[in-house]
Structures are given as C-alpha cells and as structure tokens.
Specification:
alpha+beta, elongated, 12 strands
Length: 229
C-alpha cells in the first residue's frame, strides 16, 4: 500500500510538472508570437509616416576652380517638381540656389578643379517650389547623371498631415496601414513633440513599445515611439 501511495504521489507530481511546463511553453510562445506581430506592425506604422524620395547623382569635371558657376542637368520629372533640390550630400537639406526651366534644372555652385559631385533630390509629397530662383540659362557646365537611387524618409510635413487625419479619423488610418493592433505614436524632433492616435490603456493590456529614429526630409532628426496594444 505504501509503495502504491508513493507511486501515486510521484505520478501526480510528474503530471503537475509536465502540465506547468507545457502551459509555460504555450504562454511564452504566444507572447513571443504577439511580440513579433507587434514589431511587424510597428515597422508598417513607421513606414506609413515616411515619404518616398529619389536621389540622382550628378557629376561634372571642371578644368579649374570656379566660384558661383552655373551648372545644369536635363531632368525627366518623375517625382514632385516642386520638391526638387540640389545638395552636396544625401538628405543634407543644405540646398544650393537653383531654378527650373522646362526640362532643365540650373544651380549655382563653387567648383573645384577635377571631379565635382551633386545630388538632385525630390520627394513624393506636396511642397512649395524649392528651385524657384531665376538663373540665366547656359549650355556650359552640363552634368553627367547617374542612376537614380530611391528610398523612404521621414517628413515633418507628412507627420503633421497623418497625425491630424489620425486624430480625426483613427479607424480609417488604421485600416489604411493594415494593422489589427491599436496604437499611438509619440513624435519628437527639434520643432517640438506631439502624439497621434488614442491614449495608451491605463491597465489590463500588454503594451509593446518600439523606438524608431531617422532623418527628416526637411532637415534634422526625428525620434518616434510606436506603442501598440
């Protein structure tokens, strides 16, 4: 009888340990799966706050140094012509004086003897005209264009627009993003900070927080906290 009792107790304990282990594995798996899904949703939400842009390298070889020279390139406008700007480095927002005339974009730059590199950038959103200066045309100093590079970048203008729409029509924006999670976004940059979307629940829900940072098209950096539940 004692042996039977000992066997029964050991069997019961083994069953309890097995049940607890199985429950822990299932619970951990579900938490991990939900966390992974939240991460994917956070990435989609962050991309929704960005705009597409193109960056076309332009090269010219100068025989000697030249100050305030007029440089130009033919353009096949595929992005927003108004957002076009000329920069020395990608997404620097240190735009050179420039103007557009038909299929040409002209800009002013100091050239060094030898190779000189520029980038012609444009973004896919409504903007006021960047290259609006009146620069007299010339057939000299034509640049050689290389292949366009495309990407996504945060935009203060886009952020403000989306946040305004999100705070008015949250469910519509949520469907447009394509996520089942509820969420809000804290946006911080040099111009200030603001929040998009409904408030985070005070209790009773798992809240996932994902930090995102990057450059702004308008210049500077932005930090975001995407919070999902």
């Amino acid at each position: 009888m004692r042996i039977d009792w000992i066997v029964a107790v050991v069997t019961f304990l083994m069953f309890v340990v097995w049940a607890f282990s199985s429950y822990s594995l299932i619970s951990t798996g579900e938490a991990l799966s939900r966390s992974e899904a939240a991460l994917q949703a956070a990435e989609k939400i962050a991309d929704y706050m960005k705009v597409s842009f193109s960056s076309i390298p332009a090269n010219i070889t100068a025989p000697s140094d030249a100050n305030n020279a007029t440089v130009w390139a033919y353009m096949n406008w595929t992005g927003d012509e108004n957002s076009t700007r000329i920069v020395r480095s990608r997404l620097s927002n240190q735009s050179l004086p420039c103007g557009i005339s038909g299929s040409r974009v002209y800009w002013k730059a100091n050239l060094s003897a030898g190779e000189n590199y520029f980038l012609i950038e444009s973004a896919d959103f409504d903007a006021s005209l960047n290259c609006g200066q009146n620069i007299p045309g010339t057939d000299e100093n034509q640049t050689e264009l290389w292949a366009s590079e495309s990407g996504l970048v945060f935009s203060g203008s886009r952020n403000s627009q989306v946040c305004s729409e999100m705070n008015q029509t949250y469910e519509t924006q949520k469907r447009a993003i394509g996520t089942a999670f509820d969420f809000n976004i804290l946006i911080e940059h040099a111009g200030g900070s603001f929040t998009c979307g409904p408030p985070v629940p005070l209790s009773g829900r798992d809240v996932f927080v994902y930090p995102v940072s990057g450059k702004l098209w308008e210049g500077g950096d932005v930090n975001m906290s995407v919070r999902l539940w």
